[in-house]
Write a structure and sequence with these properties.
Elements: H1 18-33, H2 41-72, H3 75-83, H4 95-108, H5 113-124, H6 130-142, H7 148-160, H8 163-177, E1 182-185, E2 190-192, E3 195-197, E4 202-205, H9 207-210, H10 247-260, E5 266-267, E6 277-280, E7 283-287, E8 294-295, E9 303-304, H11 325-343
Antiparallel strand pairs: 1-4, 2-3, 5-9, 6-7, 7-8
Helix pairs in contact: 1-2, 2-3, 2-4, 2-5, 6-8, 6-10, 8-10
């Protein structure tokens, strides 16, 4: 969408794999938005600088290529430029073709290649990682034992191809689970909930909590997929409206579709099926698998399933039972002995 130099069938000579690009953008986001751990601050800054440099260098080449194809050359020179550019591999109406048009339009507005390049990755890093957490929160809600009937309805909607209905279910699950927040800086004096606001004050807007405000939302704690869409959502609005507020739900719905086709989907037993979180100030943070540092997107959740089809898991669920390390070793050794015995 932002026309990066990532490898794909539309960019055969791209230098960044999807993993490389994701990690670079995530490092920029963590340092720019979630840098609240003094012990990690220096390394986060270093990784963000390295990521920004790699993305800038690789993207600038593509932006310059678009500029050469815009008509700055004439006649045969322009035709040759277009014939051998990456534009020839673009598919009609693909996200990458939209990215090309975005670059072209930004340049047509008089923006320099340097400014266009910066705008591309500064827009992109804001959505990196956040969607992973949003998908985890949504699916975790659906897979709770008390929500078994809701998950069954989700699976039925997927089988029926009811995308509109599925969007409603995902939107409502997100309303009940999101901890999304935004920070804005006041530019004029005012008053908010009885407290004076002065220019320069940082205002933390708890979008997730606002969507569950009992004084403004009827039956705020109840799951209701037919609920009227509220003006308050997990996506920022106004002057800095979320650029992906329409794409993000489509992405999450697509992943839910895939998950709904997995028979008896449930969290893995023991610590593998757990996601540990803490709240730092007003921000929800996740612990990594070794509990050694904070992350800001779920990355440790493991799930099990038994093939494909519509069938909810009804057996004993043990995702919250903590297993001692010695117990792990014992089970591994026991399984090893069984395999040796079987092979003999």
């Amino acid at each position: 969408m932002f026309y990066f130099d990532s490898k794909s069938d539309e960019n055969l000579h791209g230098v960044l794999s999807a993993t490389d690009l994701y990690n670079h953008l995530l490092n920029v986001r963590i340092w720019g938005v979630n840098n609240n751990d003094p012990g990690q601050a220096w390394n986060r800054r270093r990784r963000a600088q390295e990521g920004a440099q790699v993305i800038t260098d690789t993207t600038r080449k593509l932006v310059d290529e678009v500029a050469r194809g815009r008509g700055f050359g004439l006649g045969i020179a322009m035709a040759v430029s277009n014939a051998f550019s990456r534009k020839t591999y673009l598919k009609k109406d693909s996200l990458r073709s939209c990215g090309y048009k975005l670059v072209d339009e930004l340049q047509a507005q008089g923006n320099s290649a340097e400014r266009v390049t910066e705008n591309l990755w500064l827009c992109a890093f804001g959505g990196i990682g956040a969607l992973v957490a949003a998908f985890y929160e949504t699916l975790e809600f659906f897979l709770r034992p008390e929500n078994a009937s809701v998950w069954s309805e989700v699976q039925t909607l997927v089988q029926q191809g009811d995308d509109a209905g599925l969007h409603n279910y995902v939107r409502e699950a997100q309303r009940l689970t999101t901890t999304q927040r935004n920070v804005r800086v006041a530019v004029a004096p005012g008053e908010l909930e009885g407290k004076p606001i002065q220019p320069g004050n940082a205002i933390v807007m708890m979008l997730g909590e606002a969507g569950r405000n009992k004084t403004e939302t009827e039956d705020a704690a109840t799951f209701n997929p037919k609920r009227q869409i509220s003006d308050v959502s997990a996506f920022s609005y106004g002057q800095h409206e979320c650029l992906a507020k329409e794409l993000a739900p489509a992405f999450i719905v697509g992943l839910v579709k895939l998950a709904a086709d997995l028979k008896k989907l449930r969290p893995a037993p023991g610590q593998m099926g757990q996601v540990r979180t803490i709240t730092v100030g007003t921000e929800k943070a996740y612990l990594n698998d070794s509990w050694s540092y904070l992350t800001f997107d779920a990355s440790t959740w493991k799930l099990h399933f038994d093939g494909h089809g519509k069938d909810a898991f009804t057996g004993e669920r043990q995702p919250t039972k903590v297993m001692d390390l010695q117990e792990y070793y014992y089970r591994i050794q026991k399984r090893k002995d069984e395999l040796i015995e079987w092979s003999q």
